[in-house]
Fold this protein.
Amino acid sequence: MPLLLTIMLFAAFGGIASAAVAVVFLWVREDQSAHILPHFVSFATGALLGAALLALLPEAIAGAGPQGAYAIGLTLIAGLGVFFVIEKLVLWWHTHGREGNPADPHGHSHEAAHGHSSFHASGVLVLVGDSLHNTLDGVLIAAAFLSSTSLGMLTTFAVAAHEIPHRVGDFAILVQAGLSRPRALLFNLATGVASVIGAAAAYFALRQTLAALPYAVAFAAAGFLYIAVAGLMPGLQRRTDPRSSAVQVLLIAAGIALIAGAERLTHQ
């Protein structure tokens, strides 16, 4: 199978299939879903940390060689900064979107009674944000596959793991914004196409500059680290009871162990 087709298929799996899997949780009772999803977040945190530190970063350092180790470090710092700025822009956009759509004392927007106008206020922000996020995921998957097939598969798995709980939240927002469940599912799936577009664009861009590939992989590692440490871990810290904390630690360790085991198997 041509490498480009492989990359696009795996990018589609990471961006589209994760949305389809996430929908399953919305048919589960709310109390059960609220109990299960935090476990997915814990596992996804471990998978992202493992993929970044045990797969992507070592591959980037090996590709750049000893003379490129300093540049890999700079790329890692730059990648963290880029993802920080992107998150800031998304948060700023969300904040301004809510300012234009004030809430009443009961927590409902004044536009909620108008259906589609309510969707325009919050749903569009979710769709645009998801499309940007999925485009970056596609870039990360393509960079990993151009380095090695096994690294691409591990990266896709890590992307899908953290996308599932993320998509559940976004699906719920779209439904609350006025869309029917079938339309919310369709839009959620459509944003996954952005990962395929991002992967294809990265494939052609990086093939022209293969010397930059180790640094693209390091950038992917920075993205995973940022998502895990700044995006997922703060939510996990809100649950402080000993039992929940112990389960979180075990699931994070399970995510890391799975990536570490898969990485070891692919290099035997």
